[in-house]
TrEMBL record, chains A, B:
Record-linked SUPFAM superfamilies: Aromatic compound dioxygenase
PROSITE patterns: INTRADIOL_DIOXYGENAS
Entry similarity comment: Belongs to the intradiol ring-cleavage dioxygenase family.
One GO molecular-function entry: ferric iron binding
Intradiol ring-cleavage dioxygenases domain location: 137-165
Stored PANTHER family: DIOXYGENASE, PUTATIVE (AFU_ORTHOLOGUE AFUA_2G02910)-RELATED, INTRADIOL RING-CLEAVAGE DIOXYGENASES DOMAIN-CONTAINING PROTEIN-RELATED
Domain of life assignment: Bacteria
Ranges in coiled-coil conformation: none
Record protein name field: 6-chlorohydroxyquinol-1,2-dioxygenase
An individual GO BP term: catechol-containing compound metabolic process
Keywords, alphabetical: Dioxygenase, Iron, Metal-binding, Oxidoreductase
Organism: SAR86 cluster bacterium
Cofactor(s) recorded in Swiss-Prot or TrEMBL: Fe(3+)
UniProt cross-references to Pfam families, sorted A to Z: Dioxygenase_C, Dioxygenase_N
C-alpha cells in the first residue's frame, strides 16, 4: 500500500484548509463562521506577505493579551474595542434602521454582575472622589409610541472621577458607582452620582503597547453605561456621553454617537436637591431612553 | 466651545478606524500590517454578520488559548498550525520557486533551545520507549551545485513513540530525542534514533475543543524536525516525514509535502550497526538536504 501524500503550498492555501473544514464541520452556522475566518486570516497574511518574525510577534502579542486577562481584566475585549470590532459588532446587531429607539453602543470590559438593587432616586456613589462633580441623572423610559414602560430594569455603571471602575481599584468599595433601578408606573428613572469624566483605557498591558506603537491616545470621553431591559422589549446596551468632553471626537474605542450625548447643566433646584438628598451645587442631565419592541 | 462628536456605525466602519490607524501609525510597515488586519477583521464580522454571542464566544476562546500557554505549551502556535496559517506563512517566506533546494515546512510548537551538542553518529534516544523501532537517519547536506557543506549545524527534534516531546512528559529526560550535529569535510550527517510515529497534537486545550467542534482529527504523520544552518546559506526549517504513515494525506496542521517524505527500510548492514552502536534489527532512512545560498 502506498499512502497518498497531500502537498500544501502557495498554490493551494487556503483552499485545501477550507476544503478540510468545509467537509468536516457539521453545524452549518459554525462552518460558515470558520470558513470566513480562515479565508480572511489567510488573505491578511498573503496581502501583507507576513514575515516569520511578524508572525511570531503576533503569536507573542496574542499570548500576552490572553495572559493579561483575569477575573477583573478582559484584555481581549479591550483589543476588540480598540480595533473598532466591538463597535462594528454592536452596529451589525443593533442597526437602528431609522427607528426612533435609542441607539446602542459597546458593552466595554468593565461590566460586572451583581450591582446593588436600589430604590429609585438613590445615590450610586458609595465613596466620593475629591474632584467629583455631583450630578443628578433622570429621564423617561418609554416605547416608540411614547408610552412609559413600567417595570423596566436599568443597570448603570461608571468609572470614578479618578478614572477607575470599582474592580480596578482595591481602595474602592465593591460595586461603587453601580446600581440597578426598576421603573414604576410613570416609567421615570432618576438617581444621583458623580458626573463621568474622561479616562484612559488600561495601558499597562499589551493593548497599551499596541496603542503606543500606533500613536493613538487611550482616552475615552466620560460616559455612563446602561443596560436597560423590560419584558416585551429589546435589551438596550448603551452610554450617555458627557457633553463638551474633549475626547468626543476621538474615542479610543470608536463608540461615540451624537444621539447619545447628554447635556449636563448647572442646577439650582433646591426642591430637587432635597428630594434627591444631594448637596448644592450640582449638575443635572435629562436623557430619555426609548426601547424597541422585541419581535 | 462645542466639541464635535464623531459618529460610528455601519456606514463608516471600518473606514473611520482605518483612517485613525492610518493617520497615526508612523512606521510604514507596521501601518500596512495594521490596516490590512483591521480590514480583514471587520470584513469577517460583516461577512458572517457576527452575533454578540458569537463575538463573546470568540473572546472567551482566545482568552482560553492565551491562558493555556506556559513555558512548555504554545497554544497560539497550535491554533495557527491547525488553521493552516503557519503553513501559509512558511510558504510565503520560502517559496521554492522551482529551485532544487529542500522545501521547508512549519516549526511547530515544540522547538526548544538547548539541544545537546553530539558527535556525528550519536544516538539521540536518552530513554527508549517499548514500542520504538530503532532507526538510523543519514544523508548529505549539500548546496544546489551538489557540493558538500562543511560545518553545517543540524538541529533535530522529534516526539517519542508514545507521542510526546521531552517537555510534554515529566518522566522523560530533558532534551530526550533532540540533538545538534555539525557536519565534517564530507558534508554527511548520520545519527541513531527511534522511527517517528504518528501522534495527536495536544487536545486538552481550547484548540482541541475547536478540532472536535469541526470534526477534525488531531493526528500528525510521524516526522523528524530539523533546523539546518550554515554560513552563506539560508536557514532551512523542515521535516522528514515517515513514509507509509496513514496520516500523510490528512496532517492536522497542513504541513506535509511529497518531497519531504523519507523512505524507512529494514537494514541488515551489521557493519553499520556496529559502527553506529545500534542493535539489530533496525531501519534506515537516507535523506539528502540541499541548502539554498543566502543572497
Amino acid at each position: 500500500m502506498t499512502v497518498k501524500v497531500k502537498d500544501f503550498g502557495l498554490n493551494n492555501l487556503p483552499d485545501a484548509v477550507l476544503e478540510e473544514y468545509g467537509d468536516k464541520t457539521k453545524d452549518p452556522r459554525f462552518r460558515k463562521v470558520m470558513l470566513s475566518l480562515i479565508t480572511h486570516l489567510h488573505a491578511f497574511a498573503k496581502d501583507v506577505e507576513l514575515t516569520e518574525e511578524e508572525w511570531f510577534a503576533g503569536i507573542q502579542f496574542l499570548t500576552a493579551v490572553g495572559q493579561k486577562c483575569d477575573d477583573v481584566r478582559q484584555e481581549f475585549i479591550l483589543l476588540s474595542d480598540t480595533l473598532g470590532l466591538s463597535s462594528l459588532v454592536d452596529s451589525i446587531n443593533h442597526d437602528s434602521a431609522g427607528g426612533s429607539a435609542t441607539e446602542s453602543t459597546v458593552l466595554g470590559p468593565f461590566y460586572a454582575e451583581g450591582a446593588p438593587e436600589l430604590p429609585m432616586g438613590a445615590n450610586i456613589v458609595q465613596q466620593a472622589t475629591e474632584k467629583g462633580i455631583r450630578a443628578v441623572v433622570m429621564g423617561d423610559i418609554s416605547n416608540e409610541q411614547g408610552q412609559p414602560i413600567v417595570g423596566a430594569t436599568l443597570d448603570v455603571w461608571q468609572s470614578s472621577s479618578d478614572g477607575f471602575y470599582h474592580m480596578q481599584d482595591e481602595n474602592m468599595p465593591d460595586h461603587n458607582l453601580t446600581g440597578r433601578f426598576v421603573t414604576g408606573e410613570d416609567g421615570k428613572y432618576y438617581f444621583a452620582t458623580e458626573k463621568p469624566a474622561a479616562y484612559p483605557v488600561p495601558t499597562d498591558g499589551p493593548v497599551g503597547d499596541m496603542l503606543r506603537a500606533c500613536g493613538r491616545h487611550p482616552m475615552r470621553p466620560g460616559h455612563l453605561h446602561f443596560i436597560i431591559t423590560a419584558p416585551g422589549y429589546k435589551r438596550l446596551c448603551t452610554h450617555i456621553f458627557t457633553n463638551e468632553d474633549e475626547y468626543l471626537d476621538s474615542d479610543a474605542v470608536f463608540a461615540t454617537k451624537t444621539s447619545l450625548v447628554g447635556e449636563y447643566k448647572d442646577c439650582n433646584d433646591e426642591a430637587l436637591a432635597k428630594e434627591m438628598n444631594v448637596e448644592m451645587p450640582f449638575e443635572k442631565v435629562v436623557y430619555n431612553f426609548i426601547l424597541a419592541e422585541s419581535k
